[in-house]
Specification:
Layout: H1 2-23, H2 29-49, H3 55-78, H4 84-104
Helix pairs in contact: 1-2, 1-3, 3-4
Length: 105
């Protein structure tokens, strides 16, 4: 169950990172509220996951999901460049996440 919490926490991290773009510096109320909500849920789920997972693994996976997902979301939603180097870098982040999962059990 902890791994499910951790993956969901990472997805909510993507939500708040992307949401920041829509807040216009927290001047738009609804996007700001949604972004803050995603932040709270993300950290809460991370805390639940850390009840049983090692802190280093949980934090690295959480930030890895957030980083890789946010890069992909930026490409899809905002037309950010999808260069070969960026894509290889995302694959390396995902490989690190998989490695941590395999080493933790």
């Amino acid at each position: 169950m902890s791994w499910l919490f951790l993956v969901l926490a990472g997805l909510f991290e993507i939500g708040w990172a992307v949401g920041l773009k829509y807040t216009a510096g927290f001047t738009r109320p609804w996007p700001s509220a949604a972004t803050i909500g995603c932040m709270i849920v993300s950290v809460w789920l991370l805390a639940l996951a850390m009840k049983t997972l090692p802190v280093g693994t949980a934090y690295a996976v959480w930030t890895g999901i957030g980083a890789a997902g946010t890069v992909i979301a930026g490409m899809l939603l905002f037309g950010e460049p999808a260069t070969a180097l960026r894509l290889v870098s995302v694959v390396l982040i995902v490989a690190g996440i998989v490695g941590l999962k395999l080493s933790t059990g």
